[in-house]
Amino acid sequence: MTLALCILLALGVCALGIQVLAQLSVFWLVGRKRSAPLHHHWGVSVLKPLKGADQDLERNLRSMFEQDWPRMELVVGSEDARDPALAVVQKVAADYPEVRCRIVTSSLSLGLNPKVNLCAQLARYASHDLVIVSDASVVAPKHYVRSMVRAFGIPNTGLVASPLVGFGETSSGGVVDNLMLNLFVLRAICFTKLFARHSCVIGKSMMFRLSDLRRLGGWRVVADVLAEDYVLGRLFRRAGFDVRLCAEALPTRTHCEALGDGLSRHVRWCQMRRRTSTVAYLAELAANVSVWALALVALAFALGRVDFAVTGALLLGAKVVLDLVSILWLGPRQLSRQRACWVLVADLLNFWVWLLGAVRRTVDWRGTRLLIGAQTRLTLLERGHRSEAREPFYSAANS
Questions:
Q1: What's the rounded Cα separation, in Å, for the pair 356 and 266?
Q2: Are residues 105 and 230 in the same domain?
């Protein structure tokens, strides 16, 4: 049994080492100023797919209208002409007549991924070749577009994605959602980028050229996959482009209220990661300090080995301190008593989410049940209620 204790200790130490390296990679990649040239003459079309209106939508939209980039337009839309989000867009656009805004509604379908369907329609009305796909939940800093353009200006860049930072939780579900995003997802993206030279793209914010996408097969290539962002990144890499991470972190407000809401979202992300790389998915378990440390403490107490139990507790303490330092680095307001209390619990829930992601094969998306295959290719199992497909409607809110 001493051998088992030593194995658990070794696993815990290795996991902590990985977490430290991952956090260092965050420090190195996020917030670091770059000396790339800034192409002020580049025009940018921001594609903003919408689904429903929440209390933060107006503020999120205003953050895009207030960008300091001179040549920018917004192409905003929903698949439902009765979506209340469109009224919010019209209201906000009226306050910024100097910003060109196009509003599109369409339920035409390329495949089973509704976001890809809508983005493909929005792209048809984009005036500029260079586009940003930006989700409704992001709160864009004033220099957001400028930072994305600066990263894209580095030679041979094909796609730029933003590192995300979750905020705005009002319940336990939101706390867990943000902790998993800020402590696990952010570290994983930066670690793989810096040490494995592999770019993990999150589709909440990504920039590319439509002409490049068309040469790679267009939107249809990702119309029937769940992880369209990851697959897009892989397409650009295989075509010889570099996929870069923007230096500016992008705040995104969580909409998860119940604990199950946050866990469900991360289970879906786990399913995507498992289907894109089994090896990387197994490596996630190896990097979970809390699992190995708690297993070490439990076994050590059962065997009466106080020395190993203390070592396991120290590993747990070191992981919690690392997490608290990370939260503080993201911003003093990020660290609250509620977050501090949930840090260790979120780590254990992340293990539970990992287990569910390892065995589940289906996902319910907007009332439609889908089977997830290799590389997250989707197969329809049961379709929810959907209105008849209709031709796109376009209006120019601001000319």
A1: 10
A2: yes
How many CB atoms are located within 10 Å of the residue 374 CB? 8
Query: Residue range 132-154: average pLDDT?
Result: 94
pLDDT > 80? residue 2: yes
Read off the tokens for 32.
């670091």
Cα distance between residue 130 and residue 172, in whole Å = 39
What is the rounded distance in angstroms from the CA atom of residue 277 to the CA atom of residue 343?
27
**Distance in angstroms (rounded) separating the CA atoms of residues 317 and 142:** 38
| Other Cβ atoms within 10 Å of 351 Cβ, number | 15
Note the pTM of the prediction, 2 decimals. 0.91
Residue 46 maps to which CATH number? 3.90.550.10
The answer on 119 and 86 residing in a single domain is yes
pLDDT for residue 266 is more than 80? yes
pLDDT, mean of residues 155-169:
92
Task: Tell me, rounded to whole angstroms, the distance of Cα 107 from its chain centroid.
Answer: 25
- Judged by DSSP in three states, 164 sits in strand
What whole-number distance in Å separates Cα of residue 248 and Cα of residue 67? 14
Q: What DSSP line would sit under 27-43, residue for residue?
A: HHHSS--------TT--
Q: For residues 297-328, b (16+ Cβ closer than 10 Å) or e, as one string?
A: bebbeeeebeebbebbeebbebbbebbeebbe
